Structure formats: structure tokens, C-alpha cells
Amino acid sequence: MNEYERRMEAIRRVKQGEKVSHVCTALGRSRSWYYKWAARFRKHGRDGFVDRRDQNQGPHKTAEWLCALIIETRDRLVKQAEAGESFVGIDAKEVLRQLTGLTDELPHWRTVHRILVEAGRVPANREREPVNYCPRPCAEVVNDVHQIDIWPRILMGGQRINFFHLVDVASWYPFGLVCGDKRSKTVRAFLLAAWQELGLPNIAQFDNEMSFTGGRWAHRFGQTVRLCLALGVQVWFIPTYTPKRNGFVENFHSQCNRFFWSRHSFQTLAEVEAKYPDFLCTFRQEHVLPAIAGQTPAQARGKPQNETNYRPLPVDFCLSPQLRLPIVSGLIHCVRLADRHGHVNILNRKHALGKAYARHYVLAKIRPEEQQMILYQQPDADTPLQCIDAFPFPLSEPVVPFDPTFSYLFADG
Hints:
Blueprint: H1 3-15, H2 20-27, H3 31-44, H4 64-82, H5 92-99, H6 109-118, E1 145-154, E2 160-168, E3 173-179, H7 184-198, E4 203-206, H8 210-213, H9 223-230, E5 234-237, H10 247-259, H11 269-286, H12 297-301, E6 327-328, E7 332-337, E8 343-346, E9 349-352, E10 361-367, E11 372-377, E12 386-392, E13 399-400
């Protein structure tokens, strides 16, 4: 970490709520050093982080330190995406968003893109916008679609925690838990708790976090996918690096940050667990949303138990943590955006569709019992899906037929 980064890191961590003394100790600097650079940042913005002797630059030239920071930020986002740690995006706009709040004056995103092009981080010819409509599941009534995501945070002492959030799309009704890790077993426990309270959805929608997909192996289903199939829930994966496709749960992350996380200074996971249920209850019962005709989520949800499509999961339903779930017949949806060569990567295997489908959204439907994957495209929202290709999807283990009693989860042996 160079000196500029150290100054910026100090300001960022204090803005997030850490004590000045803790930050200075971690960075090996004094409190007077922090207050000096904090004052310069308040007065000069980004120029305040730079030694004054280095500020002899033209008015239209991006500072070298800022160019270096842009490139480093892009490299970090790419590394996190490749490691499956983040799926927020890696383009120029996301790089710019990552820097927001650290400097008062930022270049336009096109300038950021130009800097990345000159550094060889992105192709010189900017990718065209997607050609066609991006398929999405339809949520007309409660429990049609549940959007699920993990929202990582850092406690004052540096410990990482994870908010597991689920939002029913039709009613905006949320469910959440706070956990110390995001292993597949933790995801399984969260989903069971959520569905015991809310009932089973028709579709569970996820981003491409490895805790959900199951890792980097091709034609392998992780425990989250297996659990959904075993309970008769369809799986829907949104396109990579497009958190806006999970907009309902992303919006709830923002509400949680605004009305809960940013209003407290948590030291331990236990403190978060103690206060979080009150926020969740208040949001459900009192938060009025224009998107649902000025109702609260609790009002919009009503009593789904009275609906004909309501599928309860018994409160005493439990699975052994050691149980390896079978692959059960069902349906998995996977939406991807083809690259400029017409290639799509679906569950860690690349398929060539041809340049005619470059920058097209493609929906893959996988039925494990048929061991086949069929690809579709949709020109616009009013046009039915159009089949464009099919590929074999071989599995290395047998597929169990779906049973509404879930007998395969409790068979002896």
C-alpha cells in the first residue's frame, strides 16, 4: 500500500464508523497524521490526498495517481470476480462507483474507460449494448418468485459477517439472517428457515455466487441447487455481473444499510443478531412502498396460506448437515449474455452459438432427468421464447424423480 492509498484507506474506514485510534494503529500512523489528511480532504477533495509538490499538472489531464488507482481498482474487481467473491461488475461505471465517496471530483466514466483501454485492461472497441430482451421470471402473486442474495459487511473490529436476504417479489416481503460465513451448509439452513416461515416459492432466483452455483466444476450441481430441486423449487440464475437483475433484494440491501447498518457501530456478530430482528419486523410492518400501492410488505403479503398455490414447509422439517442431497428432477434456468464472438458460459462450460448471437441474452433451461440443455432467446418482452439450440448435459450420478413428500430426503441409509 503506497502513501496515497494509506491516506485514502484511513478516510474510508473512519467514514464507515471505525474509531480513529483503531485505524491509525492498523495503518501505523498517528492521530495527528489522520486529522491532517482529513482536513485536506474536506478542503480540497481528491487534491488533498496528493503532496502539493506533485500538483503541477494541466487542467485537463487526469492525475497519475488517479490513473493508477483506477487501474488498481479494476484489477481488484477482476480478481474478486474470478475468485467468486464478488459479482458487482467490472466495467468502467463500476470502477467509478467504487471510487465514489473517496474523492470529491471524479472523471466521467468514459474517461475511466479510456484509461483502462490505454492500460490494456479492456478492448479498444467498447462492447455494444445487449441486442435483445433479458428474460426474467414472472411474479404475479405471493411466492411466485423469491430473490436471494448475500450482503457482506465488516464489523468494527475487522470481522467479516454476511447478511442473508430473501425478498418475495410480489409483496416485497423480506426474510433475513445474519451469519459468520457463507458456506453451502449455511445457505441451506437459511433457505429452510425462510421457507418454513414464508412457504415454498415456485422459483428461487440467485446471482452467481459460488455458494449458490456450487463452484467451478462443469455439469456439477451444488447443494443449493440440489435443495431447491428436492423441494420442487425451480432455480433461476441471473446474468453474471448484473446485480440490477436481482433488483428487489438489492433494494432491500440498501434499505438495510440506510435504516439499520449505518445507524449502529457493531463490534460483534452477537450485537448484530440481537438488533437485526427488530429492524426486520419494523420494515415488514411499517415501511410503506409506492411500488405496492402504498402498502407495507406485510399488508401486500396478506395471508398466503389461503391461496391455492401456497406450499408450506413444516416447521419441524429438518435435514442432517451431513446429508448429501440427491439430484432430483426439476428445472434450472440460467440467463447469460453472449460475448462478441457469440459464446456463452453456462455453469462453467463454454458453448459456441455463432456471431449471429453476439451480445444476445440467452436463456438456458436444464432438466436433469433429460440430461439436456435447451437454449432460447427472446427478442422483446411481448414475444415468446424462441429455441435456438440444444446441447447434452450429462450428469455423473442418477436423477431421482420428484416426490411431493420428499421421501428421498429421509430414506434409510
